[in-house]
Write a structure and sequence with these properties.
The strands form three sheets. Strands 2, 3, 4, 5, 7, 8 and 9 form a seven-stranded antiparallel sheet that branches. A two-stranded parallel ribbon has the order 1-6. The chain has helices at about 1-25, 35-45, 45-65, 160-225, 230-265, 290-300, 300-320, 370-435, 440-475, 490; strands spanning about 30, 70-90, 95-110, 115-130, 135-155, 275, 325-340, 350, 355-360, 480, 485. By secondary structure, it is α+β, with helices and mostly antiparallel strands. Keywords: Cell outer membrane, Coiled coil, Membrane, Signal, Transmembrane, Transmembrane beta strand, Transport. Its main location: membrane. GO terms for molecular function: efflux transmembrane transporter activity; porin activity.
Length: about 500
């Protein structure tokens, strides 16, 4: 009976372990590069920050455009009471004045984008009760003031147009930054992805090395026990085995760290396990250097950003010139006022109330402040124009460097393949020599390390070629694998944007 219970317990434990293993396999997500890019498009913190920045500038622009439309406002003053002691200069005596008033003020204001002026229509309606001790009379009237007002700056720059244009440029710059971040996202994800792949490959190689080292140790141990090899050979084999175990542990740590970095950048759950599925095979892609440079100079978004910097500097110059400048303000007003103790007769005897006001600000002497500030703003413009020219040169240099790296990586791939084949054949020959007793364990370990290094070198060369090809795509905004140009405007479109 006890034996059956023990068997049932062991069976239950075995089933539990099998279920746990199955769950672990199912929970582990197989991650391809395409899948990683798809996850990053919605989960990457960097892309989310760029999108939030884009939304901020978009809403600022929408707010400015809304501010150019008519504004409606209503001000209500339900109670306004005062009782004051005043002096009347006409009769040289003091009197008490008591006033009670209630009113509403309705205003429609319309900014004028073309002229930077503001035209407004205002209507004030209310009721007033006034009592004065000097006349011992009480006056109760309804009143209504309706007037049209125009305020127009003169001889100065249009602030409304300048603000709107500046916000439009800021929004365009934010869209460009988002598009650049989107392209950079592909490069960063690819780098993180292949870092995990290389760590995964190093771990696999370390496992193979440990298995081969264990096999070599077992062979030499049997030989030592049979008296066919010296004891120091067994010591060396033990040392090689310990070193292989240490290398495996280090590879496991590196692999886990690389996975965490990838998940962090993708915005994935850090506790979700992943497995990398990568195709590092390379088909050489024909690349036209002249075409890459031409398309880069025509399409690179950094150039437009430098142009925006130049335009923004020119706006600063306009504002600087407006400091201590000759300018004027004109205010025109035409209105009609009526009052009566009966509401229906407010405009029985209306009073017209036109007014015109023109004022000028005339600077006389500012000790050279305005001139110095203008010179500083002009220097800033020249600096931005210089940055634009240097950006063009840098684009050409970067594309040339990437092109040379691509050609070099193709050569490195062929060399790495040849070296990997030679290292494999060399290891197999020396493994046979080792089994025959013609080679020491230390020498075999060197050949095994050489084979592992060449395998890693070949994979790294293949990955370097893929990354450089991606760099060329980003630098030139031309995809030579698909033989089509990347249109920057297509990268600007996001959900919720115009």
């Amino acid at each position: 009976m006890k034996t059956k219970i023990k068997l049932m317990q062991k069976l239950a434990i075995a089933l539990f372990l099998m279920a746990a293993a199955t769950f672990a396999v199912q929970a582990q997500e197989a991650l391809t590069l395409e899948r990683a890019l798809s996850i990053a498009e919605t989960g990457s913190p960097d892309l989310k920050l760029s999108l939030l920045n884009l939304e901020r500038y978009q809403k600022n622009l929408e707010a400015q455009r809304a501010a150019l439309k008519s504004r409606f406002s209503l001000q209500v003053n339900p109670v306004n009471y005062s009782k004051q002691r005043r002096f009347d200069n006409r009769v040289s005596e003091w009197y008490t004045n008591e006033n009670f008033e209630t009113s509403t003020l309705f205003t429609v204001a319309q900014p004028i984008l073309i002229t930077d002026g503001t035209i407004s229509l205002t209507n004030e309606f209310g009721w007033s009760s006034n009592n004065s001790s000097s006349s011992f009379t009480e006056s109760e009237v309804f009143f209504n003031n309706l007037y049209l007002n125009l305020n127009q700056p003169l001889f100065t720059y249009n602030t409304l147009k300048l603000q709107l244009k500046e916000l439009e440029l800021n929004f365009e710059n934010a869209r460009i930054s988002y598009a650049m971040q989107y392209l950079n996202l592909e490069r960063r994800v690819t780098e993180f992805f292949y870092n995990v792949y290389m760590a995964q490959m190093n771990l696999s190689i370390a496992k193979d090395e440990l298995a081969n080292t264990q096999k070599s140790y077992d062979i030499i141990k049997n030989k030592v026990e049979a008296g066919l090899a010296a004891k120091e050979e067994e010591y060396q084999a033990e040392l090689n085995l310990a070193s292989a175990k240490s290398t495996l542990q280090n590879s496991e740590v590196t692999f886990e760290n690389a996975k965490d970095q990838l998940k962090l950048y993708l915005g994935m759950d850090l506790f979700e396990d992943i497995m990398i599925l990568a195709d590092v095979s390379v088909n050489p892609v024909p690349v036209d250097l002249d075409k890459a440079i031409e398309n880069g100079l025509e399409s690179r978004m950094e150039l437009r950003q430098r142009e925006i910097d130049v335009e923004t500097s020119q706006f600063d110059l306009i504002r600087t010139k407006a400091q201590n400048e000759f300018r004027g303000d004109m205010n025109l007003r035409f209105g009609i006022t009526g009052d009566n103790n009966e509401l229906g007769n407010i405009y029985q005897n209306p009073t017209k109330s036109p007014s015109v006001g023109i004022s000028f600000n005339i600077p006389i002497f500012d000790w050279g402040e305005r001139k110095a500030r203008i010179a500083a703003a002009e220097a800033a413009i020249e600096s931005q124009e210089l940055n634009l020219n240097e950006e063009k040169k840098q684009i050409v240099v970067d594309i040339r460097q990437v092109y040379r790296n691509i050609l070099n990586q193709l050569n490195q791939i062929e060399l790495a393949r040849q070296n990997e084949r030679n290292a494999q054949l060399t290891y197999e020959i020396n493994l046979e020599r080792y089994e025959n007793g013609d080679l020491t364990g230390m020498d075999l370990n060197l050949y095994q390390n050489q084979l592992s290094s060449q395998k890693v070198a070949l994979s790294q060369a293949l990955i370097n070629y893929k990354i450089e090809l991606l760099n060329l795509k980003i630098q030139s905004l031309y995809d030579f694998e698909k033989d089509e140009a990347i249109i920057p405007e297509e990268l600007y479109v996001t959900d919720g944007q115009e």
